[in-house]
Inverse folding.
């Protein structure tokens, strides 16, 4: 069964304290892996798409990487405004269905 | 500006009532999706549509219905058969190419439904 697991469930960081969020997946064939940011009471906001192992994408303080089994979202020198829930999703080969993890709730303290 | 709109933002339903949530997009996307989000759970797929006049059940379609009469619109009806409808509902769209879409989804702002 296709599955996506995110860890940790929650993470508290001090401002400037870099860390990584993990998204591990078991799928029959990966067509794409997606990262989103979601603020409370709002819809998810698209961050990155990764298609193949070894691929990396960067945007400001965020960097997403992909291996054959997992993806990491690295946050460098985070600021309080980076506080949000980060969601990971995969799209498997031959389907139209995106499978979402339960997310990591990130809190960055000033 | 292109985007996805959902209305209303908040919706209250009495027991036994059907309610319809609106979703409109002007991104010219072929594919549209409805998800339900509950605290501590990932997004769960209710229905999806790859093309006008065609849609498929997702993982939790019981108690819900949809229509796709126009490319821009994908309304969701929560029927009285849905026993626990209180949740945050999200609509999304994506470009669909060929037999399978491999593009990111764009989400609307969500509708929070509460049963009184």
């Amino acid at each position: 069964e296709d599955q996506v697991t995110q860890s940790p469930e929650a993470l508290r960081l001090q401002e400037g304290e870099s860390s990584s969020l993990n998204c591990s997946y078991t799928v029959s064939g990966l067509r794409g892996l997606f990262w989103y940011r979601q603020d409370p009471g709002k819809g998810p906001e698209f961050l990155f798409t990764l298609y193949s192992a070894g691929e990396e994408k960067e945007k400001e303080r965020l960097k997403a990487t992909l291996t054959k089994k997992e993806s990491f979202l690295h946050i460098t020198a985070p600021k309080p405004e980076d506080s949000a829930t980060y969601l990971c999703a995969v799209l498997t080969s031959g389907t139209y269905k995106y499978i979402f993890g339960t997310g990591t709730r990130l809190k960055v303290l000033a | 500006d292109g985007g996805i709109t959902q209305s209303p933002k908040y919706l209250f339903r009495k027991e036994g009532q059907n309610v319809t949530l609106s979703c409109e997009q002007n991104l010219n996307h072929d594919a549209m999706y409805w998800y339900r989000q509950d605290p501590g759970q990932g997004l769960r797929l209710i229905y999806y549509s790859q093309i006008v006049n065609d849609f498929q059940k997702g993982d939790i379609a019981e108690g819900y219905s949809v229509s796709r009469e126009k490319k821009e619109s994908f309304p969701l009806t929560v029927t009285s058969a849905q026993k626990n409808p209180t949740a945050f509902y999200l609509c999304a769209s994506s470009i669909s190419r060929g037999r399978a879409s491999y593009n990111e989804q764009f989400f609307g702002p969500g509708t929070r439904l509460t049963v009184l």
User: Anything to note?
Assistant: The interface with chain B takes residues 4, 31-32, 34, 36, 41-46, 49, 51, 87, 89, 91, 93-98, 100-103 of chain A (CB under 8 Å). The first strand of chain A starts at residue 3 and ends at 7.
